[in-house]
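> forwarded from #structure-qc
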């Protein structure tokens, strides 16, 4: 059992206005939820599941998982004087949140040039195809400004980097990484470290290597959790329990993940890799614990979010004008469409068995010499040479390129309706190909919650005393579809604060 704390005091560059808010673009977006009880009252009871015989410790709130959602919930509750036990099964804190880059986009509403909160709400609602919890989405998008002030007050200083594209404002990023643990390689680790220190300053109890095994119920209400700590069974009793134990991507393609076994069996046997955002502790614990006490588990469409990595390098060259093909040299999907659709088309096509990005000399986005020597990055002076370098059938490759180039010449994609402006022929004095790997960054699906982050039973009623936040309940926000870079971290920070504040309003 270990406790972590630490702070990085950073300089401020181009301090954000109080009216600034975060737009989805970059590796992480933040959100904070205001305390609001708007029509949020507990509504039902459920069958009890028994009591624990382990020694009992009394708290106001027990939080399972010390990632972004759990930490934001813990600090929020501790700031209101509540006694909080924060339980993390791994030796380090931060979860997936600690691995994110935390680069984000800030917007001064005074410019009037980009999204405002209402536009962001409308955009995300459209992206979810209406499958999310609208009330929860409204809370997330309407309270984003406060998160910046809240984090800055704790010591998370931010600075402005350069524009990432001409039609977006400059990104904002934390200035340096943290030391929350070996896996905390992203700037999110710094923010996690700051929240840990703040939580402990407020008198909170953080216990790492605390493996929560079950929830404790009494007459239909959840009143705590049982955890194994240093080989000892301990009961953490509280009128509020928040499940913030992450998603279930750890183990995709392997064995032993009960959520994947039951809900995503199609991923068994897929040769998929874990990207940095995929956290080893995310094994679906919170989801299964919730289900054991009657919680509804929901998936709109079982969905895996992630990235593609080319040529053994994260600096991928997959772009709108490239061509993504499988081992049979058949295109996978619309390379200029939504990345989530292309990614999942690749998953459906066969996982990571064989995928290649084909690139012509005229549509190579970067200097190809930078990638020479990278495993999986090859070139050839003609189709036969490229096929030989790839180790694929030359006739099949030639047919694939000829078919695609025909679409490019006609300006009409007869296979996947790629826009004409992205139909660039694969030709030139040198042709390139990169081996593509599917990287698992997380999954969407989990416990159903209402707009106050109360966990819902299968009949749609609330389970007294039980709340959830972050990836453990992310389907209620995403609606089944990854909303883009930053949306996941945005929901973690928002929902953690929503869960804590609404629980306090309900029960404390």
């Amino acid at each position: 059992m270990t406790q972590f704390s630490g702070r990085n005091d950073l300089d401020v560059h181009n301090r954000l206005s109080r009216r600034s808010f975060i737009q989805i673009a970059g590796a992480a977006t933040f959100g904070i939820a205001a305390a609001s009880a708007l029509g949020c009252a507990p509504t039902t009871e459920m069958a009890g599941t028994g009591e624990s015989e382990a020694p009992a410790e009394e708290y106001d709130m027990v939080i399972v998982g010390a990632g972004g959602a759990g930490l934001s919930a813990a600090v929020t509750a501790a700031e209101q004087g509540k006694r909080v036990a924060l339980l993390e099964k791994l030796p380090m804190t931060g979860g997936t949140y600690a691995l994110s880059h935390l680069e984000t986009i800030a917007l001064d509403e005074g410019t009037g040039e980009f999204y405002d909160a209402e536009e962001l709400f409308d955009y995300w609602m459209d992206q979810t195809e209406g499958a999310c919890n609208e009330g929860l989405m409204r809370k997330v998008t309407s309270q984003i400004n406060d998160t910046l002030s809240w984090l800055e007050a704790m010591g998370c200083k931010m600075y402005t980097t350069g524009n990432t594209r001409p039609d977006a404002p400059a990104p904002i990023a934390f200035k340096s990484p943290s030391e929350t643990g070996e896996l905390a390689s992203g700037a999110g680790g710094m923010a996690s470290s700051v929240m840990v220190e703040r939580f402990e300053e407020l008198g909170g109890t953080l216990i790492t290597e605390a493996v929560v095994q079950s929830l404790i119920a009494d007459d239909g209400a959840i009143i705590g959790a049982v955890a194994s700590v240093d080989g000892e069974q301990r009961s953490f009793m509280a009128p509020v329990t928040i499940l913030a134990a992450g998603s279930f991507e750890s183990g995709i393609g392997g064995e032993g993940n009960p959520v994947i076994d039951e809900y995503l069996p199609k991923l068994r046997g897929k040769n998929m890799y874990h990207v940095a955002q995929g956290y080893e502790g995310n094994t679906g614990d919170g989801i299964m614990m919730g289900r054991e006490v009657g919680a509804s588990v929901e998936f709109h469409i079982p969905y895996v979010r992630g990235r593609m990595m080319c040529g053994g390098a994260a600096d991928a060259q997959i772009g709108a004008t490239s061509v993504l093909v499988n081992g049979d040299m058949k295109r996978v999907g619309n390379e200029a469409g939504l990345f989530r659709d292309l990614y999942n088309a690749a998953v459906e096509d066969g996982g990571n068995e064989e995928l290649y990005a084909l690139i012509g000399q005229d549509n190579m986005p970067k200097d190809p010499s930078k990638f020479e020597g990278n495993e999986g990055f090859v070139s050839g002076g003609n189709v036969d040479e490229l096929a030989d370098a790839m180790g694929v059938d030359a006739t099949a490759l030639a047919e694939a390129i000829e078919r695609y180039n025909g679409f490019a010449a006609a300006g009409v994609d007869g296979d996947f309706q790629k826009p004409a402006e992205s139909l660039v022929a694969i030709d030139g004095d040198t042709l390139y190909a990169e081996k593509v790997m599917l990287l698992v960054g997380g999954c969407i699906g989990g416990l159903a919650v209402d707009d106050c982050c109360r966990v819902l039973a299968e009949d749609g009623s609330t389970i007294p005393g039980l709340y959830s936040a972050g990836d453990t309940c992310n389907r209620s926000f995403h609606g089944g579809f990854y909303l883009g870079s930053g949306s996941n971290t945005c929901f973690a920070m928002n929902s953690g604060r929503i869960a804590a504040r609404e629980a306090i309003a309900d029960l404390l």
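QC bot note: Residues 301-439 form a domain with the Flavocytochrome C3; Chain A, domain 1 fold (CATH 3.90.700.10). The mean pLDDT is 76.
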